[in-house]
Each structure stands twice: as structure tokens, then as C-alpha cells.
Design a protein that fits this description.
The chain is α/β, with parallel strands linked by helices. The protein is about 40% helix and about 20% strand. It has two domains: about 140 residues, Nucleotidyltransferase, domain 5 (2-Layer Sandwich); about 180 residues, ATPase, nucleotide binding domain (Nucleotidyltransferase, domain 5), CATH 3.30.420. It contains eleven helices and ten strands. The strands form two sheets. It has a five-stranded mixed β-sheet, sandwiched between helices. Helix 2 runs parallel beside helix 3. It comes from Kiritimatiella glycovorans. Its EC number is 2.3.1.234. It is found in: Cytoplasm.
Length: about 350
């Protein structure tokens, strides 16, 4: 089977062709970062219009790179949530039109599930049956969660953020430091050569101050609102921290606080004897400090670590195709051209 997947949940326009396995044959991505940088964040109206403008050429590129034509496609997959409603509709509308034109089935994929399974995309990735139960740190956009992955379609959220996500904390921090958007890469660049222990920032108390809903363990939950407030007050009292060499130490200390807040919860959850491996996925998973820290935790726990490759951390359609081909599609056939869910989660 050859599947063509579409991803337009936020500000990346992406398409991918994959074969049963899953085996990724192509992955075409257009990033809108330059379009949104002047505004310090994603503008939904601009995002959806840019998807409309770029998706046709991205689809053609994905087919061309996979050395196949429209007649070679056996099935379609598309992100149905979570994400920006207007952006999701662009992708689903295009996929629905292709479904009618090609006469092939169309499957809706949960964007977060696709991130969770992105660790299995590389050719040298571990077999899910051997790697699971896997403890995955999901740090994608507005989402931060610790998830136990027992296999494709089988997940249990152990902890999540009670306020802001790690990515949001990095974006806001970069704005306060005058580093621009997107915040994660900007802070990582500014932190080079800085002292991560120069300034002490709170590591987030998770459920210690407010109780999470449901059966979540308060000790495995995150909180980043206090970290952002601490940075705001520091810069208010000493604006010089964001200038010259002092900025390196400020950025390094802030980056350390975000990464350590994540790592401490992973370290705690890793004590569960049934966990066989660790993984990290989502845009923030590209951060070198975070990856190194998680590798340290995995080594100390005697477990392998399975990072998603950098090219599959940020939004892409290869992970959408991979998730669909991994079996999620069995109950996810799209029957409505408006079947999106902007607040879709993982349970």
C-alpha cells in the first residue's frame, strides 16, 4: 500500500508518501516561520491562507520525490486535530477532494499520536513490541505531557502541564529577552557559551500547588507559568541581563530551567519497573540540552532512549502517514469533510 498524507495543523504545510512498514518514501515540508516572525507567533488567518497557496506544490513535490503518480496512491491520511481550526480545514478539504477524485479511502489522524509514534519512523528504529512499554516525553507546540506508550493506539497519559506548555514558555521567554520567534531555537543559540547555573529559576511545582484532574500523578505534572513570571520580574528589575555577555547566561539559565523541569518528571516516571525504554518527540525535542539530559537519565536507568529524529520532531506529514499505516486508521475513516477536532487529545 502507498499512502499520501497531509499535515496542516499549524504553520507547516507538509505532504508525504509512505509504504506499508511504514517506510517513508518522501517528506515535503514548507515552513511559514518567516511569515509569522514579525508578529511574534502564529497568526491563524495568515497560516490558513499560506496553506491554500502552498499545498498544491507540496503535494506534487511529495509525489515527485517518491517517484510515483496520483494513480499509485492507494489511501490518504490527514491530520484532523488538534490544531488551528482554519488550518486543519484546509488540509481536510484538500484530502476530501483527493478522496473523491482518486476513489481511495481517507483516514483521519491524531497529530499528537503521530508525534508519539514518530520515534518508530527511522529504518533503524526499534520494534514497538520490543521497545514498549515506552515512556515518551511529548513536547509539541502547546502540549507537554508524559505518556506511557504500550503500542500503536495504546496510550496512557501519566502527567501533563497544568498551565503553559514548555514550547510556550520558550517562546515567551525569547520575546522577553528580545530574541524573536520561534523561541526555542533562538534561546538555544543565545545560550551557547553561557553559564546555565548563573541564575536560578523555578523548575515548576506541577501538582504540588494545584491538583490535576482525573488520575494524573501530581508529581509527574508540569507548570511553567511561574518560570515565565520569574523571568519577567528579573528583567524588570535588571534590564541589563538581556544585553551583551549577560544575555548568554540569562538564556542558558532559562533553557536549563525548562529542560530540567521536564527531565525531573521523566526521571521520576522512569522508576516504574515495567518501562522498557525512553523517548522524546515534538518540536522541543530538537533541543540539544534536553536530548543530552534524557540520554543521561536513560543510561542511569539502564534503558535505551529512542529520540525522534530532528526532521520528524517539528510538524511533518511523514509522521501522519506512519501513524496511519501503524494501525490507527482502523477506526478513523473520515466520512465528513468538516470532521476536524481542534482540541483533540490523547487519552
Amino acid at each position: 500500500m502507498r499512502m499520501l498524507a497531509i499535515e496542516t495543523s499549524c504553520d507547516e504545510t507538509a505532504a508525504s508518501v509512505a509504504a506499508t512498514g511504514p517506510r517513508i518514501l518522501s517528506s515535503a515540508v514548507y515552513s511559514q516561520i518567516d511569515r509569522h516572525r514579525p508578529y511574534g507567533g502564529v497568526v491563524p488567518e495568515i497560516a490558513s491562507r499560506d496553506h491554500l497557496r502552498k499545498l498544491p506544490s507540496i503535494l506534487e513535490q511529495a509525489l515527485r520525490d517518491a517517484d510515483c503518480g496520483w494513480g499509485d496512491i492507494d489511501a490518504l491520511a490527514v491530520t484532523r486535530g488538534p490544531g488551528l481550526a482554519s488550518s486543519l480545514l484546509v488540509g481536510l478539504s484538500a484530502a476530501w477532494g483527493l478522496k473523491l477524485r482518486l476513489g481511495v479511502p481517507l483516514y483521519g489522524v491524531n497529530h499528537l499520536e503521530a508525534h508519539l509514534l514518530s520515534t518508530f519512523l527511522p529504518e533503524n528504529a526499534p520494534d514497538p513490541e520490543e521497545a514498549c512499554p515506552m515512556l515518551t516525553l511529548l513536547v509539541s507546540g502547546g502540549h507537554t505531557a508524559l505518556v506511557r506508550v504500550d503500542g500503536p493506539g495504546a496510550y496512557r497519559v501519566l502527567g501533563r502541564t497544568l498551565d503553559d506548555a514548555a514550547g510556550e514558555a520558550l517562546d515567551k521567554g525569547a520575546t522577553l529577552m528580545g530574541l524573536g520567534y520561534p523561541g526555542g531555537p533562538a534561546i538555544e543559540r543565545a545560550a551557547r557559551g553561557g553559564d546555565p547555573h548563573a541564575l536560578a529559576f523555578p523548575l515548576g511545582r506541577g501538582g504540588e500547588r494545584s491538583q490535576p484532574s482525573g488520575s494524573l500523578d501530581p508529581r509527574l505534572c508540569f507548570s511553567f507559568s511561574g518560570l515565565k513570571t520569574s523571568l519577567l520580574y528579573r528583567l524588570r528589575d535588571d534590564p541589563g541581563l538581556a544585553r551583551g555577555d549577560a544575555l548568554k547566561d540569562l538564556a542558558a539559565s532559562y533553557e536549563y530551567a525548562v529542560c530540567e523541569a521536564l527531565a525531573l518528571r521523566v526521571e521520576r516516571a522512569c522508576r516504574e519497573p515495567s518501562i522498557r525504554s525512553l523517548a522524546c518527540s515534538g518540536g522541543v525535542a530538537r533541543n540539544r540540552r534536553l536530548r543530552a539530559r534524557l540520554e543521561q537519565i536513560a543510561a542511569e536507568a539502564g534503558r535505551p532512549v529512542c529520540h525522534a529524529p530532528p526532521e520528524y520532531c517539528t510538524d511533518n506529514a511523514a509522521m501522519i502517514a506512519g501513524a496511519a499505516l501503524s494501525g490507527i486508521e482502523r477506526d478513523a475513516a473520515v466520512r465528513d469533510p468538516q470532521d476536524i477536532d481542534p482540541v483533540l487529545g490523547v487519552e
